[in-house]
Amino acid sequence: MIRQLGNMDWMLKDLSQSAQGILQIVVLSADGLRIARHGGDPDGADRVAAACAGLQSLAAAVAAELPYGEGVMRMVVIEMDAGFFYLMAVAPGSYVAVLTDETADSARIGAAMRDMVARIGENLASPPRHDGKAG
Q1: Burial class of residue 52, CB neighbours in 10 A (0-12, 13-18, 19+)
Q2: Of 18, 36, 63, 122, most Cβ neighbours within 10 A?
Q3: Per-residue pLDDT tens digits for 45-57
Q4: What is the largest CA-CA distance in the chain?
Q5: How many whole angstroms separate alpha carbon 60 and alpha carbon 111?
Q6: Is residue 82 exposed (0-12), middle (13-18) or buried (19+ Cβ within 10 Å)?
Q7: Distance CA 131, CA 21 (A)
């Protein structure tokens, strides 16, 4: 079971209004299940969440190669031809993904995401599932 705040709509809306160019926000579990979304359509948010599961795993594998780190992925930023993609760890087992257009200011987006993560943090801890059950 994912521990989550009752209604995160206001937080996601606040994040979307805090920086120019945000098109979609998806909060997801490490195994790619959508917890919440703002903007875009539900099917698109589910596809983003599923793709993020693989991306966070790849980023953690690369982070493990740094000699003095702990192998923890904090944030991934990808620049694409029509905008940017951001993936940030929220709490153990949960992440927030943001898709923006090309007008986005990376520093502002990153700061807004960090602020949101500080507010929701441990409320979104998602324990790993074993045999389809959390815990």
Answers
A1: buried
A2: 36
A3: 999 999 999 998 8
A4: 43
A5: 21
A6: exposed
A7: 40
What stretch of H or E contains 21? none
Cβ-Cβ contacts under 8 Å for 99 (sequence gap 6 or more): 22, 23, 24, 25, 40, 48, 83, 84, 85, 86
Task: Indicate the residue type of 18.
Answer: S
Dig out the tokens for 61 from the structure. Answer: 């594998």
Q: Which of 18, 63, 14 is nearest to 38 (CA)?
A: 14
Through-space distance between the first and last CA atoms of the chain, rounded to whole angstroms: 8
Model confidence, pTM: 0.83
User: Six-digit token pair at 42?
Assistant: 């539900």
Q: How far apart are CA 57 and CA 40, in angstroms?
A: 24
pLDDT bracket for residue 104 (50, 70, 90): very high
